[in-house]
Design goal:
Blueprint (H helix, E strand, L loop, with lengths): L21 H32 L1 H12 L1 H28 L6 H25 L1
């Protein structure tokens, strides 16, 4: 049998000592915003189905979406959608072989946060 000396082997980096990079955080955020966008799509489908079924069902979901909480939820969903789109665009750029160096990737990650926020503010002000 192989001599397995588990006590003296180094452990892999743990979350407590690992310093997350901007690129990894933006990649995680793309996944989170994808899930959030799916939740927002569920709310919109619920609204459409309620509109086609009964007035009381429609009033429930319409009341939720027109409340201050609904406004906040839809604003967050708008930001999530824009962030996710910008993240997918970043991956298309990477697929073509551009901007693969670390400094440019970090600037693109910061640009995604800023771009999604700017686009969301434009949509909020226009609509």
């Amino acid at each position: 049998m192989a001599d397995v000396n588990r006590g003296n082997r180094p452990l892999s980096p743990h979350l407590q000592i690992y310093r997350p990079q901007m690129t990894s955080m933006s990649s995680i955020m793309v996944r989170i915003t994808g899930i959030a966008s799916m939740g927002a799509a569920f709310l919109i489908v619920w609204w459409l189905i309620a509109a086609s079924t009964s007035e009381s069902a429609f009033n429930v979901i319409d009341g939720l979406l027109r409340s201050w909480f609904g406004d906040l939820l839809l604003l967050a969903a708008t930001w999530a959608l824009f962030y996710h789109v910008l993240g997918r665009l970043r991956h298309v750029i990477w697929d073509f072989g551009y901007s693969l160096d670390v400094p440019t990737s970090e600037k693109m990650a910061l640009g995604m946060f800023g771009g999604a926020t700017l686009l969301t503010l434009i949509v909020a002000l226009v609509f």
